[in-house]
Every structure is written in structure tokens, then in C-alpha cells.
Amino acid sequence: MKLRKGKLTIFILLVVAILGTAATTTGKIWNNITKGLDLQGGFEVLYQAKKGQKVNAQILHDAASAIRNRVDVIGVTEPEITVEEPNRIRVQLAGVKDQAEARRLLGKPAKLTFRDPTGKKVLIDGKDLKEHGAKVDYDPQTNQPLVTLQMKNPKKLEDVTRKYLGQPMPIYLDETQLSAPVIQTVITGGNAQIDGQRSVEEAQKLVDLLNAGAIPIELEEVQSFAVDASLGAASMKDSLIAGVYAILAIFIFVIGYYRLPGMIATVTLIAYSYLVLLTFMLLDVTLTLPGIAAFILGIGMAVDANIIMNERIREELRIGKSVPAAMRSGSRRSFWTIFDANITTIIAAGVLFFYGTAAVKGFSVSLIVSIIVSFIAAVGLSRILMNLLIRSNLLKHPGLFGVREDEISDL
């Protein structure tokens, strides 16, 4: 008797812990999940390498890396930058406030060159700069902001300034002349400076651009679209409302049709939903509208697993087995059916991830996570809760599984 009461106590404590944890921490977890641009606004740009350039996979990845450095300058968290071979790069920036400035910064080649007095011959270019060697400084006499640079090879700058001593050496960013300082003395030590910046903010932008590095190929914008933050918020609200209605409908169905096992399935579905959101947060998954669709689809998969197991148990009860025996046999029979259904869906989602675009990849990642967690919840947690109730001697009547007396065989 004490053992049965102990099992019931464990069951109640486990259910209370699941529901209590979900109720108190789900909101915090949801707020910490990174949302895609379709949920919080932002914009997407598809770039393509201009014709006539040598482009391969490595060059594309280098260009994507340079773009990512620039995104860091903008301050956008979790950008989606995808290389689409043979010659395209897709950039998705969620939550960016100044879209025009972001587009300007991303599309700028940012090739720094020091040229001869005619402005035609390149003497030193951005490749000669030390990594992150640009910084904001001030003219000691005028206190005006300027940009200082450090060269990888000080001797090269020394030779150039010696050759063109007393002459202007124009400094260009792409094809825009920033300044044309006259070389007053031979520069040793590899330190150069760019003046003419009108404000500290302008000087800092130039420093950020130079430190981010030049994009190794010229890119042209193929297409772009923006999502307003309010539109993204409305889409998220509508999606969440639809999801809540779908989940409530599922809860009503499983409880009404499967009785007490349906209530256990409801608890496992709540645990499943919580674990999926927690996994999204821990893996830093960027959640999008397709991702929410995959999440809700995963709930359907989790319900399907519970239905398969409960139906197998009901079949065993109809042939006259006791509740404990039906539980053991039904669980064993349902395991491989549930496993096969989940593994085939994971394979399909894997194919979508490998060949799909960014939105499809987000859907497939969410679906894979949802299926794995649903399998653990349905096969693991459901059986643990069910066994606790059976051992507490509460689940001993077939009617609690929705099986009528006249359905039970006398064999």
C-alpha cells in the first residue's frame, strides 16, 4: 500500500514540477529566443557577383566573412548570411533600425588605396594595412578627428614617402577621394593618417569600415525586401494565436477520446513544447514564421506518437489483457512504429536543410529539433507517467482508456 501511495506521490510531484516550470519560465525563454526578420522586422538582400570576375567557393566565403564583419559594425545580432553557389550571397538582418545605412555599408567595396599625385597609380592598398590597425585619433594642434593607420610593412610606406616627398599622395576609398595630404617628411615606423573627417562619428564609421576589411569581389544587388517591425510583430501575434488554438483543439481531442491517458498526453505535450523552446534558446536557433509552423507540426507529431501508443494499449485491452499487461505489450508494439515515422520525417527534413534556401533551412532545423524532442517526450515521459499511475493502482479499469466492457473479448 505504501509503495502504491509513493508512486502516486511521485506522479503528482512530477506533473506539478512540469506544469509549474512551464508556467513560470516559458515567457523568459521565449523572450531570449532570437527571432527572424519576419517576426521582428528587418530586411533581406540578395547579392550577386558582377560578371567578368573570378569567383569560386572560397572567394564567396571570404566575401561572406567580410560582410559578416560589417554586420558586426552595424550591431545586428545573429545575422543570416548564406552563400548560394555559384555566385550569390543572401543577407538577412533582423531588427536593424537604419536599413538605408545598413544597405550602404554592406554594398560598399571599401577598397582603400594610396595613389601617386595623378591619382591613377596605386602605391599602397588595403591589403598592406594591419588587421584592425585603423583607429580614431585627434590632431594635437586643431583637435580635429582623424584616422590613423598601421602598415604591415613599414619599409614600403617609407620608400613611397621618400620617393614622393613634397608631393600630394591622394587617399581613396573605392573611387572616392578622402584626402590628398602633401608628404611633408619621410614616414618611418609604418604609421599613416587620414584627415578631413568632419566629426568623430564620421571618423569612427571610416575606421569600422576599414577594420571590417574589403569585400574581395564586386557585388550587385539582385533583389531585396524589407519587413516593418510592426508588420513582423503582427505576424508573430497572428501565428501565436493560431498555434494556441491548434494546441487547445489537440488537448480537447486527446482528453475527450482517450480519457486519463489523454490527460497524460496533454502533460507530455506541455513538456514537449517547453523543451523545444528551451532547445531553440540553448542552440541559439533563429526562429522564423516557417520555424513556428514546424514547431506546431512537431506538436502534431508528438500527438501522433501518443495516439499510436494509446491505440496499441487499447487493442491489448480489447483482447482481454489486464491493464499492466496491456501497457507493457502496447508500449513494446508501438515503439518501432513511432521510431520509423519519426526517422523518415527527420531524413526528409535533412534533405530540405541540405538543398533549401534560408527560409527552408530554418523550417527544417525547427522540424528536426521538434521531432527529436517529441520522440523523447512521447516515448519516454508518457511511459514514465503511465507506469507510475498503473503501479499506484489507479489505472486498473479499461474504461479509463476509453474501452467499453462490451468491446473486451472473452477469449
Secondary structure elements and pairings:
Elements: H1 2-32, H2 37-40, E1 42-49, H3 57-74, E2 80-84, E3 88-94, H4 99-107, E4 112-115, E5 122-125, E6 135-138, E7 145-150, H5 154-163, E8 171-173, E9 176-179, E10 191-194, H6 200-212, E11 219-227, H7 229-258, H8 260-282, H9 289-318, H10 323-355, H11 358-391
Helix pairs in contact: 1-8, 1-11, 3-6, 7-8, 7-9, 8-9, 8-11, 9-10, 9-11, 10-11
Features:
411 residues, alpha+beta, Alpha-Beta Plaits, 14% strand, elongated
Descriptive overview:
Helix content is 57%, strand content 14%. The chain has 411 residues and is an alpha+beta fold. It has three domains: 2-38 and 228-407, Multidrug efflux transporter AcrB transmembrane domain (Multidrug efflux transporter AcrB transmembrane fold, Up-down Bundle), CATH 1.20.1640; 42-107 and 219-227, 2-Layer Sandwich (Alpha-Beta Plaits); 110-214, Gyrase A, domain 2 (2-Layer Sandwich), CATH 3.30.1360.200. The protein has a four-stranded antiparallel beta sheet. Strand 4 (112-115) and strand 5 form a beta hairpin. The radius of gyration is 32 Å and the shape is elongated. The mean pLDDT is 78. Keywords: Cell membrane, Membrane, Protein transport, Translocation, Transmembrane, Transmembrane helix, Transport. The chain crosses the membrane at residues 240-258, 265-283, 289-309, 335-356, 362-386.
